[in-house]
Design a protein that fits this description.
The protein is mainly alpha-helical and about 220 residues long. The protein contains 12 helices and 4 strands, in the order αααβααβααβααβααα. The longest helix has 15 residues.
Length: about 220
C-alpha cells in the first residue's frame, strides 16, 4: 500500500470514532476553485463518503488552509517511509499532481492524482508513471531522468531496498531497463515504447518500482 492510500485509511480511522454526521458535512474546497462532492465523485473513482473523510483530514489535520504545499506533501510521504529519505521522490510525485505548476495542490488536484494511483486502470497508471519519469515534460524519458527517479526511489526505500542502495547499482539498474525500453535505440524513450515494454514485460514495471511505491 502506498503512502497516500495509507493516509486515507489513517484519516478514516481517526474520524470514525467521532459522532459527527458526515452526510451533513458540506465540503467547501479551495476558494478559487470550489468543486463540490458530486463533481469530484464524477471525476474521480472515490465515493462521496470517501471524499468527505479525505477532505476532513486534508482540511482539518494536514492542510488547514485548504492547500498542500510541497513541504507538507513531503511530510506525508515521510510518515510512511521512515527507513529512508523520501523527499526527492515526493518532490517528483508532487510535480505530477501539480498540473498548473503553481507550487501548491488544491484538494481537487490531490484527489484526482490519488484517484489514478490507487484506482486507475493499467493504462492510466502507466500514463502517470511515464509522466513521473518524464521530469521536464517534453514527451521523452532520457537516461538521466530515469536515473534521477530510480535513485530517488532507492533513497526512499532505504535499508529495505533490494538490491541495497548503491550508486553503481542504481546506474546498472537504469542501464538494463533503459536498454529494453529504448526499442529504436535513439537514446530516449517515447510514450509508445514505454507502454509497449511495460505491457510486454511486467518484470520491467516491477523493476522500476512503480507499483511498489505509488500504487
Amino acid at each position: 500500500m502506498d503512502a497516500l492510500t495509507s493516509w486515507i485509511n489513517l484519516k478514516r480511522n481517526e474520524f470514525k470514532k467521532k459522532d459527527h454526521d458526515l452526510e451533513d458535512l458540506e465540503m467547501q474546497v479551495v476558494r478559487y476553485k470550489p468543486e463540490g462532492l458530486d463533481v469530484l465523485c464524477r471525476k474521480s473513482k472515490f465515493t462521496r463518503k470517501e471524499l468527505q473523510i479525505m477532505y476532513r483530514g486534508f482540511k482539518q489535520v494536514e492542510c488547514p488552509t485548504g492547500i498542500v504545499n510541497e513541504e507538507t506533501f513531503k511530510e506525508i510521504y515521510a510518515q510512511f517511509f521512515p527507513q529512508g529519505d523520501s523527499s526527492a521522490y515526493a518532490h517528483y510525485v508532487f510535480n505530477t499532481f501539480d498540473h498548473d505548476r503553481n507550487g501548491s495542490l488544491s484538494f481537487e488536484e490531490f484527489v484526482m492524482g490519488l484517484s489514478v494511483l490507487s484506482r486507475g486502470t493499467l493504462q492510466e497508471r502507466l500514463q502517470w508513471a511515464f509522466n513521473l519519469y518524464d521530469i521536464n515534460g517534453d514527451g521523452f524519458i532520457t537516461k538521466d531522468e530515469m536515473t534521477d527517479i530510480v535513485s530517488a526511489i532507492y533513497e526512499m526505500m532505504g535499508r529495505f531496498s533490494e538490491p541495497m542502495i548503491d550508486e553503481n547499482t542504481a546506474k546498472e539498474h537504469v542501464d538494463r531497463v533503459f536498454l529494453k525500453m529504448d526499442i529504436n535505440r535513439d537514446g530516449v524513450i517515447t510514450f509508445d515504447e514505454f507502454m509497449e515494454t511495460c505491457r510486454r514485460d511486467e518484470n520491467i514495471t516491477k523493476g522500476m518500482a512503480i507499483f511498489d511505491t505509488v500504487l
